[in-house]
Amino acid sequence: MPIPLFNSIASWLLRKRYHQIELFLKYPLDVQDEVLRQLLDFSQDTMIGKQYGFQDLPKYEEFRNRVPIVAYEDIAPMIERTRRGEQNLFWPTSIKWFAKSSGTTNAKSKFIPVSTEALEDCHYKSSKDLLCLYLNNNENSQLFTGKSLRLGGSKELYEDNGTFFGDLSAILIDNMPLWAEYSSTPSNKVSLMTEWESKLEAIIEESIRENVTSLAGVPSWMLVLLNQVLEKTGKAHLFELWENLEVYFHGGVSFTPYKNQYKKLLPRKKFNFYETYNASEGFFGIQDQNNSDELLLMLDYGIFYEFIPISVDGEGEQAIPLWDVQLGVNYAMIITTNAGLWRYKIGDTIRFTSKSPYRIKITGRTKHHINVFGEELIIENAEEALKQVCLKTEAEIMDYTAAPIFMTDKEKGAHEWIIEFRRPPADIAYFTEMLDNALKSLNSDYEAKRYNNITLKMPKVHVARENLFHNWLKSQNKLGGQHKIPRLSNDRNCIEELLHMNVQ
């Protein structure tokens, strides 16, 4: 099919979807109520459905009272049973794909179920909606006259007892519709390569020969790729190579630390950056306005949302539905999905910026974490790693904090630690190496980002002077039992103050 014709047809089809989006924009609460009823009706004969009486099709209040809120650790045994071949436990259709990701407290990886319904009605539908919303805001777009350069952290899918597990991106690529494959680069074969350095080279070889009109991927990984593209081609910026490049679709980690670097690579005022909010558990939000940092909450993807207000002292108890939320309040997000996650605590916190339509901003995690490079390092990983290293080095720790060192120009990122020891290790370099190895063993995403120093370099560890953390808390007027050192941060505010105080 000639490319201009493909562009016209694709644009027309995607714009038709906007009328369906308008439905949940106008009737958001009705749409959410219907999503819950459909999920309950569809799942009434599952083990979970029978346990909680879904056949009664309870109204929301009864659903909330009957079904407990769960974290991954609560449902891991049931997921493992499904991975071994049992079906109809939490979802009626066969679950044969599991998205592998890190971040669980008790294991290196967690396995998130991905149903056929979640693939079609959530993940693929969201891809089309992202393009639909973009085209609705940019009528003169020539997006489909070229290809989208996609970058996933894909690993091949591994088979185990008739089920398959791997990166979500690998599952999506493995089931990708023809229209998406036709309009993307690199090829599926290259996208699924496992060795990162070889994969980068192959992506560059394929993509520099294409007319690339959009980019899609996690900012940290994409930055590494684009810098290598410029290095290989000798171009000053990306428009010298791809003159029709018009938008970068990004998500996964905060874009803020990378924004200035991307503007150097893409020095054109009319270039668009579009954010998404997605995870292995589902696709939740899409930027629906140019030059905005707010995300439209997508309400018809087979996901029912609830929210727990976060108080000053921590997380509250009672979850509320969409129709009870308030603007400006920090909420922990709870999801019920068309892959059989029932009242699942995803671990993210959001804040509503609008209720007509419902727009949100991602505000962080319910737990301390570092996720600047897609490493998803949580407090449990840090605590266990330090415990292991202290045993090996006979060190004793009093206090610590860690934060990212952001990428600058072609310099890779890293994690920076300040540790106050009660008993310091004999060799801080050896301690640092052991800490790095322990984190890699506990967290597969951190391990991937550290592979050959591709995204993350070796961590930097500073030995804190005596009473550094006490003095910092005192300077903040935060001495006392209710105030704690932020262990892991996505920004450098705290660590910069501590570093400054450490040399005084």
Task: Write structural notes for this entry.
The protein is an alpha/beta fold. Among the domains are: 117-295, Rossmann fold (3-Layer(aba) Sandwich), CATH 3.40.50; 369-502, ANL, C-terminal domain (GMP Synthetase, Chain A, domain 3, 2-Layer Sandwich), CATH 3.30.300. It contains 17 helices and 22 strands. The strands form four sheets. Strands 3, 6, 7, 8, 9, 10, 11, 12, 13, 14, 15, 16 and 17 form a 13-stranded mixed sheet that branches. A four-stranded mixed sheet has the order 2-1-5-4. A three-stranded mixed sheet has the order 20-21-22, with helices on both faces. The radius of gyration is 23 Å and the shape is globular.
Query: What is the C-level CATH assignment of the domain at 117-295?
Result: Alpha Beta
Structural class: alpha/beta
Contiguous uncertain segments of 5+ residues:
none
Fraction of residues in H or I helices: 25-40%
The count of DSSP E runs of length 2 or more, i.e. the number of strands, is 22
Total helical segments = 17
List keywords for this structure.
24% strand, 504 residues, 13-stranded mixed beta sheet, 4-stranded mixed beta sheet, alpha/beta
